[in-house]
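Fold these two proteins, one after the other.
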Amino acid sequence: MMKKVLHIGSVGTSSIMKVIQEGIRLTDGLETKVIYSRDMERGRAFAGSAGVEECCDDYEAMIAREDLDIIYIASPNCFHAQQAVRALERGKHVIVEKPAAVSGGELREMEAAARQNGVFFFEAITTLFMPNYTVCRNMLPRLGRLTGADICFGRYSSKYDDYLAGKNPNIFNPEMKAGALNDMGIYCIHMAVDLFGAPQQVSYEAEYGPNGIDLCGTLLLEYPELVCRITTSKDRDLKCGFRLEGENGFLASEGELNVFPACYGEIGGASVTINEPTGENRMVHELARFRDAILNCDTEFFDRMCRQSREAAEILERAHQN
C-alpha cells in the first residue's frame, strides 16, 4: 500500500468519468475528494453514485483548496486548456482527458504553466500505457524497415441518434471542439507519434455533418520512408485495430485501441502472440504511472509526455486546417 495518498478534484460527470472514478478507486495512492460540476444537483447525484463525499459548482474555489494535489479534467474538449492552465497556476498537478489540446499553442500554454509553477500535467491516453502496447512497441525494431502502417479506431456513438434527430450533443458540437478525429482518432494519432514521431505532412479527408462536424475520416501522416494511414469515425462501427508491416514481418491487432487487446504477428518467419493481462479497468495503468511520476518528481517522464502531447495536438491542428 502506498504511504502517500494523492487527493484529486475531478471535473465532469460524463460516462467516461464513471470509468475514471473506478480506476482511481483501484489505484493505490489515489483518492477523489470532490467532484466538480456546473450543475450542483447533477454533481451531487454523480458523486453519490461514485462514492465521493463532496461535490461543488465553483471551479476556482476547488482549485484553491490546499487539500487537493491533482485536478482531473474530463470536461468538454473546449474547456481543457483553460481549466488546466488555471489549476496549474494554482500549483495543482493536472491530468487531462484526451485530447489535452487541439492546437500546439494551447498545449504550449499548459506546459509553460506547469513549468512555471513546479507541477506536472499529463494527457490521459490509455493506449500508450496498456501492457500489450508496451510489448508491441518494444518488438517494433525486430520488424526492420517499416513499409506500411494502418491504425483504425471508430465506432457508432451512443449520441449519434440524438444528432440525427436534430439535437446538439457535445460530442457532435463544433463549438466543443469535438468530432471523430478529436475524440476517436486521437488514440491513433498518439500511437503514431509514439512509434514514428512527428510527421512531415498531414492531410485529413472527412465526411462532415450538417453543422460542420467531422463524422468520419482518413488521416494520412507522411514520414520520409513511411505513410501511416489512420481511419476513424463516430457514425459507424469500423474494424478497429492496427497493422504494422516491415521487411521482417508484421504486427497486428483487431480490437479497440483504448484497451489494446491481444496482438499477433510474424517476425522472421516465426509466429508471434502478445496477450498480456490488462486488468479490470483500462485506466489503472496510466493512473499508476502518473502517480509515480508525481511522487518521484520524474521530470524526464514529464518532458517526454509534454513532447508527445504537443506533437499530437499539432497534428490535430494541421488536420483541421486542410
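Now the second one:
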Amino acid sequence: MKIVYLGTPDFAVEPLKRIIESGKHEVLAVVTNRDKPVGRKRVLTAPPVKAFALEKNIPVYQYDRIRLEGVEDMKALNPDVMITCAFGQILSKEILDIPKFGVINIHASLLPKYRGASPIHYAILNGEKQTGISVMKTDIGIDTGDVILQKALNINDGETCGQLFERLSILGADCIIEALSQIENKTATFIKQDDALATFTKIIKKEDAIIDWHDSAENVYNKIRAFNPAPIAFTTLNGLPFKIYEAEVTCDVGEAGKIIKCDNQLVIGCGTGAISLKTVQKAGGNAMKIADFLRGNKFTVGEDFV
C-alpha cells in the first residue's frame, strides 16, 4: 500500500523503520512538526522522524497545523492509508477522508483507557502493572476511533517512562505491520470503544513534576519514574530546584518532606512511608549517584525539602 506517515518524536521512528524494512509498502512521504530550538543554545533541531526520513530519502512535509496548511499536499499524494504515531496535531475530517483506507493511529495504551497526549506517563503515575499498544482507525474525536488490534505489555518493576517508551515503540512497530496486513487482506475487524470506560491524559507540563511530600511514598516513587527522562521530578532545597532521577520506597517512617537518614543514603519522609534518593541533581550541578553526591554535600536529620 501507498502510505503517508505522520509522526514526530523518537517513539514514532521504530514503526516507520519497520514499515520501510518490510518491503511490502511504499512510504510516499513523512509529515512532522517543524524544527524547533533545542537546548540552552537554542539550536534549531529537526524532529527525530524527519531526521530518519531524510536518511531514507523520503520526502518530508512540515506544518504547524496540517489541517490548515497540508490538505492539498495530502490530496496530491493520494495515499491508500495514512498512519499517525505521536504526531501531536488534530486532523480534520477533510484529511481523514483523503486515504482510501482512512487514517490509522498507533496509540500507547489499551484503549479506551488513557486516551490523549500522555498515556505512558499516566500509566506509570497511576502505578499500572500493564499497558500496551492499540491500533485504531482515527475519527474526529481524540483517540475515540474503532480499535483494529491491541497487544498488552507488562510494566517492569522500577521501569521509567523512557524505558517503557522504548519497549512500547517496538511493540507499536509489531502492531502496525500486523494491522496493515489485515487491512490489505480485508480481514481487519473494527471494534467500537466503550466511551463509558474512557480515561483521559493531558499534556505533561513542568509544574506537574513537582513532588508533594505529603503524598504517599508509592505515589512519589511513581512520579519520579513517570517523569524520567523528562521533565524530571523535582522538589526544592534551600529555595532552589532539586531534581530526583531515581529513588526507591523504604520502610522508614518520618515527617513529610524531612530528612530521616543522611549518612550513606538520603531518605525523605512522605505522607506515608519514605523515599530513598538514588540519583539527584542540585541547581547548577550535574546528575549524580547519591553516594557521590553525599561526599560533597552535607545534610542533617530533620532538614526540610519543600
